[in-house]
Amino acid sequence: MATRHLSQIELAARWNISHRTLERWRTTGEGPRFIRLIGRIVYRLEDVEAFEAEQTHGAESATSHAASA
User: Fold this and answer.
1) Residues 6+ apart with CB under 8 A from 11
2) Per-residue pLDDT at 49
3) Does residue 65 lie in a domain region?
4) Rounded distance, CA 23 to CA 31, Å?
5) In terms of Cα–Cα distance, which of 21, 50, 19 is closest to 33?
6) Range of the domain at 33
7) Residue 12, C-beta contacts closer than 8 angstroms, at least 6 positions apart
8) Predicted local distance difference test score (pLDDT) of residue 2
9) Burial (CB count within 10 angstroms: exposed 0-12, middle 13-18, buried 19+), residue 10
10) How far apart are CA 43 and CA 36, in angstroms?
11) Is residue 22 a part of any domain in this protein?
12) Distance between CA 28 and CA 46 in Å, rounded?
């Protein structure tokens, strides 16, 4: 199966943020992993989805933190 990649513009549209935010995140080490290919930045869909999963917060994660404290 071929790996799907998102351009900076596609990812910005997916998250409804500015592409400049993604540029800033790259310089500060925030955001999802990225690949620089011949001067072009792309994001692997699996890395984007993993980043989204890491950012997920809810009752389940709050319960597990309270139980471990």
Assistant:
1) 22, 32, 43, 48
2) 96
3) no
4) 10
5) 50
6) 5-56
7) 18, 19, 21, 22
8) 81
9) middle
10) 9
11) yes
12) 21
Paired tokens of 64: 């597990």
pLDDT at position 57 = 84
3-state secondary structure string across 8-33: HHHHHHHHCCCHHHHHHHHHHCCCCC
In angstroms, rounded to a whole number, what is the distance separating the alpha carbons of residues 54 and 32? Answer: 10
Specify the number of domains making up the chain: 1
At 59, the pLDDT band (50, 70, 90 cuts) reads: low
Q: pTM, whole model, 2 decimals?
A: 0.76
7, amino acid identity:
S
Residue 48 CB contacts under 8 Å (≥ 6 apart), including other chains: 6, 11, 14, 32
Distance CA 54, CA 49 (A): 9
Closest CA to 45 of 59, 57, 35: 35
